[in-house]
Amino acid sequence: MNQPHSYSSTVTERPEGWNRPAPIESRGERELLEVAMGPHHPSTHGVFRMDLALDGERVVRLKPEFGYLHRNHEKIAEGISYLASMPYTDRLDYTCSMTNNWAYALAVEKLTGQEVPERAEYLRVILGELTRVQNHLSAIGFLIQDMGASGTPLMYAFRQREKILDLFEGLTGARMMVNYMRFGGCRVDASPAWLDEARKVVAGLPAFVDEFEALLRSNEILMARTQGVGVLRPELAVNAGVTGPMLRASGVNYDIRKVDHYGIYDRFNFRVPLGDHGDVYDRFMIRLLEARESIKILEAALKDIPVGPVIDPKAKIRGLRPKPGEAYGRIEAPKGELGFYLISDGGPNPYRYRVRPPSLINLTILEDMCLGHDVADVVLIFGSVDIVLGEVDR
Amino acid sequence: MKTVEEIKAAIESAIPGAGVEIVPNPSPSGQHSLRLTPDHAVEVANFLRDDAELALDFLSNVTGVDWPDKEISEKVKVTHTVTKTVDGVEQSVEETVEETRKRVEPGYLEAVYHLYSVEKKHGPVILRMRTVNRTDQVELPSLTFVWRSAEFQEREIFDLFGIVFTGHPDLRRILMWEGFKDHPMRRDYVAPDDFEYEPTAHDGVLKRTQAHQAAAGQALEERHQGTGAGA
Asked: Mean pLDDT over residues A25-40, rounded?
């Protein structure tokens, strides 16, 4: 199936001024092997293909190919009302539907100038941070699974994720497709019993993160496989629009929760962990540290949550017709900057609805990180980006 | 953070003749944007990125928007000179009539860029560019060499809207498959009933059957005529 293919000496021609690393020249007249990794490769976390050119084991060229899951989410949204798009956003990054809901609600609130009650803001922070914790833990689990430790570490993470998903189910009726946020608040209120349950789950999290970290940190194979692999320079990371834990692992201090102060994040005391080297190991440690900071936010939010309405009773939800105009709203989703750009022409449906998918844009520099590494490392580097194909392909 | 007016002034003092225009946004978000002319767009983008005060080093989002031809009907008061017969004498009288006139405002495709600054932690600054029309002059300069994050997003706009970004290093379809003809995010795009339609042998078979039936019918008629003649 994989035919050996001979290339000319320069494999990829790049125009001048192109800020990528110089391509690794093929050694003389050696033959390169062209491999299609995917679309059903187990390490690609979905249907995704990488077209690799290999010189022995070394990667000389990598072209990501996607669109297998494309359903034109944006076109669908142009034909339905503002509210009807809310459950569709669950399906973008289907492991983090709470933050997808939040980003969309935030963009519409910017478009209409809608205010959100305080209790709803607290609930949003609690659910958003729970989402972040479960996403980061399972991302680490998947990364270790890609490294060859089949099953156990991932199931460790999933055991904890299941408790968080049970909380979501108790509140919204669904584990993953929550459809919870509304423009101007949240759909249902949390009962005191639910809050107690949430406090119990959060109280169990630090011990789990400690255990998880101890298991992994002392693992020699993990160190050898991840340290110095797939280094991403900070200048390139910023220029290529990389966001989220990947950007911070490269040492760039940019967290939208701190920059935009959306919601009520300025009320919480948390730190932004930064990496030094920008390699796979840093990306994985940053996720652990971020999970710890999220637990801090959760503890504070669950303690301070006030009583009150969860939605403005005057908020227009059904039959919403925003005045003509446009708005871009963004939040710090677990995978990076998730933004929604809406243009209204005064009608009941958005004129233009655009999702800024962090997963897609974080893949821009996949080739740069993989050049010169072995094929086995490509799996790890790709895993450390942490993508969901539902969001990449939309 | 500078206001749009100040940014416009800064661009115009740095690049004379840049032709920047403010596009107001009436929504409560208050995110006004700057419209660039395609000829100076790369220059302006480089200035915005490298200027010490603005330092817009992070291109967050690139969006394509389709604005199709708009038919506008207006009511216009027109004064005509009409010849009328009043009391048996022909007179020319001025008459004001209200008429509805239709004119077509030509459509265009638009690319919208949302910029932020990681260094200064401000934003967004929104840039827009328009193509000349929606059919044959759909080129815009690519900003991929200024901000690398435009690479996949401009490819997506090329794929779904059909804006051709000149100077893009790798302008291919990204979400739709190679060989797909249309641009599905355009407002006037009509989706086929079946995206994977392939003609079957059906039409060929039908044609052969019809030909056969015609021939058989003719033969039958001839036979009837034969019997008629014989009787």
From this structure: 72
Residue A217 has pLDDT above 90, yes or no: no
Which CATH number, 3.40.190.10, 3.40.30.10, 1.10.760.10, 3.30.460.80, labels domain B4-68+108-166? 3.30.460.80
Q: Which residues pair with B71 in a beta bridge?
A: B104
Per the CB < 8 Å rule, is A72 touching B59? no
Whether A184 has a pLDDT exceeding 80, the answer reads: yes
Distance of alpha carbon A159 from alpha carbon A247, whole angstroms: 28
Q: Are A130 and A98 in contact (CB under 8 A)?
A: yes
User: Does the ipTM surpass 0.95?
Assistant: no
Going along chain A from its start, the domains and CATH numbers come out as 4-65 (no CATH), 74-393 (1.10.645.10)
**Number of H-type helices and E-type strands within chain A:** 15, 9
| Residues of A in Cβ contact (< 8 Å) with B59 | 241
Q: How far is A22 from chain B (nearest CA, A)?
A: 15
Say whether B79 sits in a helix, a strand or coil. Answer: strand
Full-model pTM = 0.83
Q: Which residues of A touch B148 (CB under 8 A)?
A: 19-20, 236, 239-241, 364-365
Give the confidence band of B228 by pLDDT, cuts at 50, 70, 90.
low
A56: phi then psi, degrees, rounded to nearest 5: 70, -120
Report the run of H or E that residue B34 belongs to, with start and end.
Answer: strand B33-35
Interchain contact, A344 vs B151, CB within 8 Å: no
The lowest-confidence range among A47-51, A59-63, A218-222, A389-393 is A218-222
pLDDT band at B200 (very low <50, low <70, confident <90, very high): confident
Judged by a CB distance cut-off of 8 A, whether residue B37 touches chain A is: no
Whether B6 has a pLDDT exceeding 60, the answer reads: yes
Task: Name the residue ranges covered by the structural domains of chain B.
Answer: 4-68+108-166, 71-104
The beta strand positions in chain A, using DSSP E, are 4-5, 32-37, 49-55, 58-65, 181-182, 185-186, 325-333, 336-344, 352-356
CB A378 within 8 A of CB A366: no
% residues pLDDT > 90 (chain B): 14
Compare CB distances from B118 to A14, A252, A343 and report the shortest one's residue.
Answer: A252
Q: Does B25 touch chain A (CB under 8 A)?
A: yes
Q: Do A328 and B114 touch (CB under 8 A)?
A: yes
Q: Is B145 near chain A, with CB under 8 Å?
A: yes
Q: Measured between CA atoms, how close is A241 to chain B, in angstroms?
A: 5
Q: A169 pLDDT band (50/70/90 cuts)?
A: very high
Tens digits of residue pLDDT in A350-393: 999 999 999 999 998 888 888 888 888 888 898 888 888 888 88
At CA A127, angle to CA A125 and CA A130, rounded to 5? 105
Helices (H), chain B: 4-14, 41-50, 150-160, 202-230
Strand arrangement of the beta sheet that strand B21-23 belongs to:
B21-23, B33-35, B122-130, B108-117, B58-67
Share above pLDDT 70 across residues of chain B, in percent, rounded to a whole number: 97
